[in-house]
């Protein structure tokens, strides 16, 4: 990633200081985070006997750059100006505009416009990093296909998420998506590009069999869903000292989750349905919502669902096509997800 951005900075300087500054902003927004996707690529590659770590690093960086593109665009969709505790691309360019005296609506529009440009650059260059890996022929085509699948499927998940958010009525109303709707959206939007395809890319690069690649894909699909379910749980019931994330944000946003979809099927939900999605939600009101989530059994249901998907992921790992090194490598991943569920 550092080498890629160094080269991009050099090229951008020739086109002027504003463009060079955009690349610096994009690099800052690509830094930090857990590096889940390149970790999946590298772990699968090493567990299945790969030895060309430079090539694998390029593939891992490609998936991380894809992630950067998606979150930059996702923030535009959600009209967010903050990411990981600091201003994102939109926020950076909004603030520059307001400092220059531009009215806030125009400044926000400028910020989101620049973010679209930045996301486009990250998206296109994810494919370029595959090309720079040194892999050629059928294998490079296969890696391109996996990156394409990640992007193609994630776009569908994002579309469904937008559709869920735009449905009329309160977050707890009759039009709330079902549990199955939410699970499918989370699989498409997050699990495929964060776990399933990076694992398959690492395995394919290592020369694994088609059966082994499929088994790792099944593992990634299920652990990715489990991971997202747990994230949604922690967004409401987590300890802010551990997660670094407020437990009011998802409720104020009215984020469509398994928790809410399950609770909405119970009459008790009517007591708090109008509170969900309120930007002014207070801690006391959030406590009322949590109490209803406990009363309806929605918290227990969601925790059990996360464990179920984590167990499905482990079942995929015991496929005889996978070597013991793969099970040793990913056992801690399953344990980590299960450990995050109380």
Report on the structure:
Helix content is 74%, strand content 1%. It is mainly alpha-helical and 342 residues long. The protein folds into two domains: 135 residues, Farnesyl Diphosphate Synthase (Orthogonal Bundle); 205 residues, Farnesyl Diphosphate Synthase (Orthogonal Bundle), CATH 1.10.600.10. The protein has a two-stranded antiparallel ribbon. Helix 7 packs antiparallel against helix 8 and helix 14 runs antiparallel to helix 15. The longest helix has 30 residues. It starts with a helix and ends with a helix. The mean pLDDT is 93. It comes from Herbiconiux ginsengi. Its cofactor is Mg(2+). Keywords: Magnesium, Metal-binding, Transferase.
